[in-house]
Amino acid sequence: MLRLxxxxxxxxxLPSIQCTTKYSTVVAQEPQRPNLKTEVPGPNTKRLxxxxxxxxxxxxxxxxxxxxxxxxxxxxxxxxxxxxxxxTQISSLPLGYNHPELLNAFDDxxxxxxxxxxxxxxxxxxxxxxxxxxNVLISVAPHGMxxxxxxxxxxxxxxxxxxxxxxxYRVKERGGSVDFTDQEMTSxxxxxxxxxxxxxxxxxxxxxxxxxxxxxxxTRSKPxxxxxxxxxxxxxxxxxxxxxxxxxNTRENKNEDAKCLDSVxxxxxxxxxxxxxxxxxxxxxxxxxxxxxxxxxxxxxxxxKICKQHNIAFIVDEVQTGAxxxxxxxxxxxxxxxxxxxxxxxxxxxxxxxxxxxxxxxSPHAYRIFNTWMGDPGKLVLLDKVIKVIKQDKLLDLVCKxxxxxxxxxxxxxxxxxxxxxxxxxxxxxxxxxxxxxxLRDKIFTNMRKKGVMGGVCGNNAIRLRPALIFEPKHAExxxxxxxxxxxxx
Length: 490
Ligand code: PSZ
Description:
The chain is α/β, with parallel strands linked by helices. It has 17 helices and 16 strands. A 7-stranded mixed β-sheet has the order 3-11-10-9-6-4-5, with helices on both faces. It has a 4-stranded antiparallel β-sheet with strand order 12-13-16-15. Strand 10 (343-346) and strand 11 (353-357) form a beta hairpin. The protein is globular, with a radius of gyration of 23 Å. Bound molecules: ligand PSZ. Ligand PSZ binds next to helix 8.
């Protein structure tokens, strides 16, 4: 009955999705449904685990993949089990597995040579690098942003964004001068002020920004990420925790926004008093690893305003939300900012790390945002193809359509199984829901996997969806169908 209702609703909402394979040829080659041949983990997986664990700590490994056999939205493990993948390598596969456009990406000699001759980009970029940056990364830049650096990963992107924020802050402190004093030049070699200034980067409780040291200081999602590592004394403000459904809790949620914005202001003042002023503030458009917590466009606009008032670089971390899963290329497009953010960091579905920045964040000195590789032109060959497929196949529209099917289905399930799941939320296919306890959440996750759905969890009690951009309404139906069975059997 529920399934019929939802299908009827799907058709009413989405009259145009009759031809489900029009979006992507790779989907036509997928299995029809998940198909498990052994228990999970199966014997091959267990053997491989022993092998890997004898070389390194492999406790985080869930399954070994047979990447030759993975197709589209389906992950195939070492035992031949076929899973519908709604986690997609921690949300980092824009077009699923083995997309034909990417399989052919290095067929021509120029692309192949771009891949194998990896340059030290900061010193010897290729003759086509400026044009490649323009054609690929700048072509999808957030509105109002025209400058970009590439980096290897998300942590590295944030790390360098913090440096760019500090450079700019110091130039302002010096009244616009870009010269260093002798005292700065000598004190910096002892890690002491004034060459090494006392500045801070503000983040939010529950945030995740990476695991390198400065990024790790701003990460506040789980103790295990941070234990035993030194950290800077930097502030963490409160990030909204909304009550659901949103439309029935507008007053409480507005108060929550106000409380969190007050906490931002208080920390700015406190750290100024402490002599460690805030040079940058970093925020995820949807707080992801910490539990998929969203905040209102008003909250984000106020945040940007506060940063402007205090000369703080407003850094939006789109590492997980960027490149389409929310239904827009950049999730912050939903917030209607009056000005572009100062810095937008990315990685994951963008295939390369990096950050976009506004003109004042371009360091006046060379060689300060720098490392050996600074990204990889081979990744831009792939990203070029990904962007073309996103445009040609209108994948952002597909994300919105599939997201609507998924979300309405989840809303029905949270009504029917209200003791098991609640607080359905998110944008596009970047969706999540909670269980009342961690134990129940973990049980749902495990039982879904036993029925062939590879999902993800985050925070203490959330289950999150992070499918590829080629996830179609028919895949959403399979997911909902299996979730329903799992909830019924609990
Ligand atoms: O456990 C981990 O290290 C994980 S699990 C998911 C991530 C990391 N996400 C990475 C991430 C992110 O989600 C946001 C919003 N910002 C920065 C990062 C760091 O990116 P990487 O992992 O590429 O360094």
